[in-house]
Design a protein that fits this description.
Elements (H helix, E strand, L loop, with lengths): L1 H14 L6 H17 L8 E9 L2 E3 L14 E7 L4 E8 L6 E9 L5 E9 L8 H9 L14 H14 L9 E9 L2 E2 L21 E9 L4 E9 L9 E11 L2 E9 L17 H10 L1
Parallel strand pairs: 1-6, 7-12
Antiparallel strand pairs: 1-2, 3-4, 4-5, 5-6, 7-8, 9-10, 10-11, 11-12
The structure holds 2-acetamido-2-deoxy-beta-D-glucopyranose (4 copies).
The site of one 2-acetamido-2-deoxy-beta-D-glucopyranose has 4 residues, from loops.
Length: 291
Amino acid sequence: MAPFVFTLATLAASAMAFECTREYLQETADRYVDLMATGQHDRFENLAYDMKYMENNKTASILNGVPAFGMTIDAKRSILDTTQCKTMTEIIVTQPPHPYVIHTQMTLNADGNVNLIDSIVTDKGDWAFNATGTKYWNSIESWDPIPEDQRDSRKVVKAGGKAYADRCNDVSVHVPFGTPCARLEGGAYTGRGNLSANTCDIGGLPEHIPMTNRKYVVDEVMGVVDIFMGFTGLDRTRNTEGAPDSHMFRIENGKIRYIHTASACFVDGCGMNGTGPPPQLRRHRSLRYLE
Ligand SMILES: *[C@@H]1O[C@H](CO)[C@@H](O)[C@H](O)[C@H]1NC(C)=O
Ligand SMILES: *[C@@H]1O[C@H](CO)[C@@H](O)[C@H](O)[C@H]1NC(C)=O
Ligand SMILES: *[C@@H]1O[C@H](CO)[C@@H](O)[C@H](O)[C@H]1NC(C)=O
Ligand SMILES: *[C@@H]1O[C@H](CO)[C@@H](O)[C@H](O)[C@H]1NC(C)=O
């Protein structure tokens, strides 16, 4: 009798093997949002024992980093990558005394447990930071799932974001900007003058700036690709280093519709002595890239 029982148990175990579905990733992303809202990590059921937490590219602890506090979340958006078994979540917090805009990528292991929470945490003093502005411009945008018959392939979605990142270093790269297109960078919105125009292709993009160490999360259903990368020299106090940065792209019909960025400075103001970034975001950027 014993071998028979053993076989049944083995079958049951393999039938329950972890499958990385959208539903599972959505639940996991929701647990992350709950963690950020409550500060209670014990409710996060699928955290791996060896989970690593990174905050702005430095190893940190969820026990004393931003996940420990609990915050009032004004807006959130998660994208799900079943191919890589990763999630990415954008969180906007405007409540005083400490507003935040946070982009987080999470990686799950083969058992379905989160073994990496990688966060770009931006607040006052970071590039163009204005959570009230971010919340407002985000609220007028539409990031609904793409209807099935209009979805781009994973390859096309990823290529849209990759082209933008590549273009920062190689000006000959063609970036598929759509019309309309708008970039939300901290609280600065390129679409504010004309919401129906292509305001992403307005010049002033970085030139000869390598975007290094890229980590992608791609969601074909949402038409979104998020890239974590090192934005070389964004912080003038460390000109040759990559500042922790996230660029999130919404792709519709193969073209970029929206861009959201979260860029952390090493020192408040990115070493620009209060001269930038906005309101003259583009001007300051162009000037420094020409130097
Ligand atoms: C932040 O953005 C809001 C909404 O666009 C704007 O009213 C406010 O003046 C901005 N604050 C700063 C400090 O730029
Ligand atoms: C906004 O952009 C659209 C498309 O480029 C253009 O047709 C329209 O005239 C612009 N409107 C304003 C007020 O500039
Ligand atoms: C993060 O740190 C590593 C070294 O610890 C470095 O290679 C990388 O460029 C840094 N920046 C980003 C954004 O990954
Ligand atoms: C900022 O101010 C310091 C001290 O006055 C100066 O050394 C530095 O060159 C300035 N940096 C920029 C980017 O203007």
